[in-house]
Amino acid sequence: MPLLSELREGDQAIIESVDGTDSIAMRLMEMGLLPEEPIEMIGRAPLGDPLEYRVSGCQISLRKVEASRISVRLPTQ
Amino acid sequence: MTVPGSKSETTGKPAVSGKKTHTSHAIAVIGNPNTGKSTLFNALAGMNAQVGNYPGVTVEKKVGRFRFQGREIQLIDLPGTYSLSPRTADEMVSVRVLLGTQKKAEPIDGVICIVDATNLDRNLYLFSQILDLGIPAILVLNMWDEVLKRDIAIDVQELENRLGVKVVPTSARKGIGLDKLKSEIVSLVENCSKADFIPPKLFPDSFREAKEQLQEEVEKRTGLPLPHFLAERLLLDVHGETEREVLKEDQSLNSFIANLRTELASKDCPIPAIEPRVRYQWVKQTLDGLVTKPEQVLKTKKDTLDQWLTHRFWGPVFFAAIMFLMFQAIYTWAGPLMDAIESLQEMSADFVMDLMAPGALRSLIIDGLIGGVGSVVVFLPQIAILFLFIAILEDCGYMSRAAYIMDRLMTRVGLSGKSFVPLMSSYACAIPGIMATRTIEDRKDRFVTILVAPLMSCSARLPVYLLMINAFIPNDSLFGTWIKTQAIVLFIFYILGAVVAVPIAWLLKKTWFKGEPAPFVMELPSFKLPSIRVVFDRVYDRSKAFVMRAGTLIFLTTVVVWAAGYFPGDHQKLDQVDAQLEGGTIEEGSPAEDQLQEQRRVLAASLLNESFLGRAGHAIEPVVRPLGWDWRIGVGVLASFPAREVIVGTLGTIYSLGGDVDEEDPQLRDRLKSARHSNGEPVFNIPVALSVMVFFALCAQCGATLMVMRRETNSWKWPIFSFTYMTTLAYLGALLTYQIGMLFIKG
């Protein structure tokens, strides 16, 4: 299963699961990063990190560490 | 479903049992970040909000008021948040205010929740938690102008029906819907009681049973009833603030809660993931079929503008340009204004001088009061200009991009991108820099940023650097003709603070502020033109906060230093000389005047020598000797603890020039150069000058900064800590500089 952090710019995917039960995982879910939600990778910061995504109509930035806690599946699979 | 708050139930008459009978009502204001909440708050309450702190936390208490239809409504602003799950004591304040259990906050009659109407899916998450509180609520769909602009259709009437609360579309920026909102608030406090607001049943039965068991158990053990909302939080927030507080009462509840959670997990109700699952499900159901967005809104690519501003190459270039412009503006635009304030200060001093005879009272008014107020007000132009920039950058949406671009670099020190702008601002002045840390939500990151901000080389250090460099650093050319040693030394001192801040921040993050790094989950709001009203409001708010809160304390410190420098000397002779000088009988520029002036300088210097401040200087001489300083530098440094730029004036006085000198005064430079120890050795040489500069680079000599720190952290602990660590650092730095420098000279 690919991780959200592995998507390339322009890739679209669907969130499978958010790893963990700590406050970071909760924060991600409160921001709308939920299973079955479609997500698109739209860019990265000039130094390579953090990354930028579009999810439920919003642009959200995540660091690689945080994005790698989210498993996704590509829509065609 | 009936809509609570509709006039059908009661006929608008208050004083039904259980309702407030007095005319002032309190309404809490809450909302997600980036929803225009503070703009709406200002639009409703005007500019006269009272600002204070809740006891024991860093949360600012902001209360505004408005009158409408004969009712007085108090608005209590709560910090912007994505959810009401309190993870820290600071976040608990909002929950307490809403539950009516917060100290120094009166019980509320209702809450208005501000959401971004263009993004209801996400924003209704917080609102579903608000509904769980079971208090009278209104949903405010802000940014309605954007909804219209983007051709989004929202069925407000049906949304009201489904939610069972009043829904009011507004645009705070354009002033749309404000009267409607005011009248709904008035009708909410007149017609609604808590009984009308029953929380929707979101969670499965197994969860509700567990919650009831928990409520019973907690009441049995602690004797205190646990409100519905807190019981939910206790069960849902693993290691949250509710858990911490309840376990403080009874540690043994830990296993009881753990058992409930395991049991729930086995019933397909995993804690804590169940909460976002059921709430977002509720949001989806509630909004189903109510919102239609045109195709292109759903599918817009990343904005073209955004693409450029976060571009691999152009992003940083633009960022550097903005930072340079901001920095430059603070320096150059503030200059004339600061000069104007200073001349106003001089004019009022002259005015008092003409009015009063020389004496202690006049000295208090001129040197203490006018000088003290002046030392506060003179910072205002820089603060206002910095906040003008920050407000524009924030309002147009660039600020979060700046954090996004700088994050990688700042994580090396253990901070996040959000610390960059406050630290950069501290280069102009640490006061607005510290105030700008409000944008950092993570408490640990915010405190570390506040604690290292005063190390950045602020503009008040410049006079000291210029004086010392001009007097003692030879202006040789290096590498051809246009690189001068003086410029290089100035540059080194400019970056010294930032270089020292790196290990300090790292250490603080490893010790006191240890913990998992704050996540960088941040919304990048879409770009929009900044609104003049919003920008003006913010600049005014911050400037007022500075003058009102820090101003009084800075002023007091200045008066104390004035008194230490004035007493206990006998000022009779000096007053006589002053009276002669001002009497109008002596011709200006005549030899008689020069003689009197010289007499005045000598008298002033000897009075300072005998004052409490002068005595303290002599007393600390053994301490400052190892830094290469004589007692006079010691006094200068002591007197400049409230404000470092005071050193120039004090050195002037002590090296018997009288107080009115600035760093460009050739006489002061010459006096410093010719100053001698009692054994005939010159006081100053290059190592001494460098040692003084290092001390000023690293020391917390700014009462105003410490006061602002106290205000922003709501505790004396952190200003005291900053003061201690910076003074120690400054002393050691100056000691090393002088001792190593002397080795070179002797060797």
TrEMBL record, chain A:
UniProt-recorded Gene Ontology molecular function terms: transition metal ion binding
Transmembrane domains' residue ranges: none
Keyword terms: Iron
Annotated Pfam families: FeoA
Keyword Iron applies: yes
Ferrous iron transporter FeoA-like domain segment(s): 2-74
InterPro entries: Fe-transptr_FeoA-like, FeoA, FeoA_core_dom, Transcriptional_repressor_C
SUPFAM superfamilies linked: C-terminal domain of transcriptional repressors
Domain of life: Bacteria
Name the UniProt record assigns to this protein: FeoA domain protein
Automatic annotation (TrEMBL), chain B:
Pfam families in UniProt: FeoB_C, FeoB_N, Gate
Predominant localisation class: membrane
CDD domains named in the record: FeoB
Listed GO MF terms: ferrous iron transmembrane transporter activity; GTP binding; metal ion binding
GO terms for cellular component: plasma membrane
Subcellular compartments: Cell inner membrane
Region (Disordered): 1-24
Domain FeoB-type G span(s) in chain numbering: 24-191
Binding residues annotated for Mg(2+), in chain numbering: N42, A43, G46
Comp. bias intervals (Polar residues): 1-11
Membrane-topology annotation of the record: Multi-pass membrane protein
Family of this protein: Belongs to the TRAFAC class TrmE-Era-EngA-EngB-Septin-like GTPase superfamily. FeoB GTPase (TC 9.A.8) family.
Role description: Probable transporter of a GTP-driven Fe(2+) uptake system.
Protein name: Ferrous iron transport protein B
Species of origin: Rubinisphaera italica
Gene: feoB
